[in-house]
């Protein structure tokens, strides 16, 4: 059953569109205002400045490029693996921050004024599962 | 040698995407001409951790004028290593303030001389007021420096910065 779902071609297309669209929507406002995104990363109170700066510079572009690659089917194996790694990392980061009791902006879509929540974590886990599905399917097609 | 233009393995694809993203990001940052994200500019804005969190360090004049970041303020409050002063009037303070902050309104500071004199002069003191455009905190900092307090910094974003981050506040006296 699970194997059948993972191999479903239509689901893979839908997953690529959903994850790709979310990446583009998340990446563009951060590219427009990386300093605000840097502040959001800083609020997690986990990373030194050079990581905050480097992440604020590169992650938005990585998101936009991954979004376009997933939608247009470019380097799909690498894109879906990177997408899975990113959502895995984001999920861990959100979970740890919630457990630490931090009440900060998520920074998921730039500064959107939406606080970290278990709902956000659930969304990220959902996107992680979709990314894993894309990766599994494209790897099978090798 | 990895052929990044025609990646064959998954690993090569991942490396190619990463390098492409970094090149585009750095290139855009450079070509846009805006100092959109510069590690040094962020770092220069705030007091370095090495000075802020080390009680024995003498604070150079050039550093003492810098503010502290929200992250640094949160750490100082969590570790209880600083006296946090709210320089606004008592009505604003009672409405909502940073947890554990005490209220010393700049305009009434001489009423608080007895309380201030009980604080050792090498205590780390953080002062804030309403926000970036408010001068009460920097005025109070200047006054306290003239009273021999040596480790005073301002949290320039003030209560607005704290509220924007949706951090919990305390209310009342």
Describe the 3D structure.
The complex is a heterodimer of chains A (142) and B (173). With 142 residues, chain A is an all-alpha fold. Helices cover 77% and strands 0% of the residues of chain A. Chain A is built from six helices and no strands. Chain A has helices at residues 2-6, 9-32, 34-43, 49-72, 76-99, 118-140. In chain A, α2 crosses α4. The longest helix of chain A has 24 residues, at 9-32. The two termini of chain A are 22 Å apart. Chain B is an alpha/beta fold. Chain B has nine helices and four strands, in the order αααααβαβαβαβα. Chain B has a four-stranded parallel β-sheet, with helices on one face. In chain B, α8 (136-146) links the parallel β3 (125-128) and β4 (152-154). The longest helix of chain B is centred in the first third of the chain and has 22 residues, at 10-31. Chain B is elongated. Chain B starts with 9 loop residues before the first helix and ends in a 9-residue tail after the last helix. The model of chain B is unreliable at 39-43 (pLDDT under 50).
List keywords for this structure.
heterodimer; A: 142 residues; mainly alpha; 77% helix; globular; B: 173 residues; alpha/beta; 9 helices; 8% strand
Main sheet summary of chain A: none
> Helical content of chain A, roughly?
over 70%
Strand content bin of chain A: under 5%
Count of DSSP helices of chain A? 6
| Uncertain spans of chain A | none
Oligomer: heterodimer
- What is the global morphology of chain A? globular
Specify which chain pair forms the largest interface: A-B, 33 and 31 residues
Number of helices of chain B: 9
Low-confidence stretches of chain B: 39-43
**Helix/strand-derived class of chain A?**
mainly alpha
Radius of gyration over C-alpha positions of chain A, nearest whole angstrom: 15 Å
* Pattern of helices and strands of chain A: HHHHHH
Radius of gyration of chain B: 22 Å
Mean pLDDT of chain B, rounded to whole units?
Answer: 82
